[in-house]
Write a structure and sequence with these properties.
The protein is α+β, with helices and mostly antiparallel strands. It has helices spanning 8-44, 108-111, 213-240; strands spanning 62-69, 74-81, 84-90, 99-105, 119-131, 134-135, 144-149, 158-162, 167-168, 173-176, 179-184, 188-195. The chain has a domain at 62-195: Chondroitinase Ac, Chain A, domain 3.
Length: 241
């Protein structure tokens, strides 16, 4: 006699196995997502990275000369940079150890007016000081003296330095006709600005500038002559009458 086969039992087991596998898959997915979030949070933890330094207009990246200076000081130059004569004097005891001082040249057309309307760059130089292959820390023990000589420098010229975001003026700068002298105690990028000449409008064909003053004077004189003439005519008519 054949036994009745209960087909519901294997179906029930299949359903149970399916539910178990689904639960395991969902749990694994949740764990993976949690791990990703934790890794992301860990990578974002801590202070924000420092902002990148801003290079000055003109770059100041072309090396003109580079020399090792000992603690007893020395002089670099005169070095010709875009037609200007550059001399750097390093006093004794300015540095406690030997350093590498590099002069760099800017691209003057790229510097332009250096943010100062009515001026243009006519000379410039960058001074970089390195010790043991890295930037010299802090300020120099004694200020250095930089002299820039050029026929394009006048007593009305201006010297500005890059402060990381803009060209600005600073104390310790002397400008005379033909030269600018700067004393400084940290790495600097300098530029000398020349004031643009203002032109006087002229009338085509005229031999000199016309301001309008002479025209006004002549107009007043003509009016006076007309008034006096009219008065004379009136007096003459009354007398004849």
């Amino acid at each position: 006699m054949l036994k009745h086969h209960n087909w519901r039992t294997p179906v029930r087991k299949i359903i149970v196995y399916t539910l178990e596998l689904t639960f395991i898959a969902v749990t694994c997915a949740a764990c993976s997502a949690g791990s990703v979030r934790a890794a992301t949070a860990a990578s974002n933890y801590g202070p924000a990275p420092p902002a990148a330094s801003v290079a000055p207009p003109g770059g100041y990246s072309a090396v003109t000369t580079s020399r090792t200076i000992r603690p007893d000081g020395g002089t670099i130059g005169p070095v010709t940079v875009d037609g200007a004569k550059i001399t750097l004097v390093i006093p004794a005891a300015a540095f406690p150890v030997s350093v590498q001082i590099t002069m760099t040249r800017p691209n003057l057309p790229a510097v332009g007016s250096a943010g100062t309307a009515g001026y243009k760059a006519v000379a410039g130089v960058g001074i970089q000081v390195r010790g043991n292959g890295s930037a010299y820390p802090g300020t120099f023990l004694v200020p250095l003296t930089l002299t820039i000589r050029s026929s394009s420098i006048t007593s009305t010229s201006v010297v500005v330095v890059w402060n990381g975001t803009a060209f600005v003026t600073e104390p310790g700068i002397t400008v005379i006709s033909g030269a600018a002298v700067v004393r400084f105690d940290t790495d600097r990028d300098f530029v000398v600005l020349y004031p643009l000449a203002t032109t006087t409008a002229t009338i085509p064909g005229a031999t000199r500038a016309v301001t309008g003053k002479r025209f006004i004077e002549e107009g007043i004189l003509a009016c006076a002559v007309i008034v006096l003439g009219a008065s004379g005519v009136a007096v003459g008519r009354r007398r004849s009458a």
